[in-house]
């Protein structure tokens, strides 16, 4: 049986670059519900570069495990560029990794998002935010939206890894 949900070429490209540069990665995710962790775990020799990750779905867990400022997080319903950057920064500390990815957003329309679908992401290298962005998928089922976010962020990360040393 052949099931392809992630861009395997990009995952293998990231793996090769990180192993070649002796760099490691950790992820902190919310809207993607652990799917980034699943994607990176599919790489050959994943333990050679992938330190692990955390899925924190609500403000309480983000504050407790990733030290997100609860007042600032509550003001934006835990969804902003700043929150994504804090997730990425804190996960590098938690897992002692060179790289950190953080993502938070909405996979289904809800009143808090104005019924819009969007997510914010951040990429951190050596404790510095090197890229942030917002993704706005077209409408779809939650799983389709989550896969869009994962594959988009995989591609963005693959491009950024080339420029960091």
Mean pLDDT: 94
Using the 3D structure, state the CATH architecture: Alpha-Beta Complex
List the secondary-structure elements in sequence, H or E: HEHEHHHEEEH
What is the domain tally? 1
Alpha-beta content class = alpha/beta
The CATH class:
Alpha Beta
- Principal-axes geometry comes out as globular
Beta content comes to 15-25%
Radius of gyration: 15 Å
N- and C-termini, Cα separation? 39 Å
- Here the CATH topology equals Maf protein
Which stretches of 5+ consecutive residues score pLDDT under 50? none
Tell me the number of helical segments per DSSP (H or I, 4 or more residues long). Answer: 6
Can you characterise this structure?
The protein has 165 residues and is α/β, with parallel strands linked by helices. Helices cover 42% and strands 21% of the residues. Helix 1 packs parallel to helix 6.
């Amino acid at each position: 049986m052949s099931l392809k949900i992630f861009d395997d070429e990009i995952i293998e490209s990231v793996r090769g670059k990180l192993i070649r540069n002796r760099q490691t990665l950790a992820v902190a995710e919310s809207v993607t519900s652990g799917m980034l962790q699943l994607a990176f775990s599919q790489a050959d020799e994943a333990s050679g570069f992938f330190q692990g990750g955390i899925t924190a779905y609500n403000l309480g867990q983000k504050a407790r495990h990733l030290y997100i400022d609860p007042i600032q997080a509550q003001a934006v319903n835990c969804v902003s560029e700043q929150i994504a950057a804090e997730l990425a920064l804190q996960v590098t500390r938690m897992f002692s990794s060179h790289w950190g990815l953080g993502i938070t957003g909405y996979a289904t329309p809800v009143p808090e998002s104005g019924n819009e679908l969007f997510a914010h992401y951040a990429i951190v290298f050596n404790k510095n935010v090197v890229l942030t962005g917002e993704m706005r998928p077209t409408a779809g089922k939650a799983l389709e939206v989550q896969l869009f976010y994962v594959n988009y962020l995989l591609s963005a990360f693959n491009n950024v890894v080339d420029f960091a040393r």
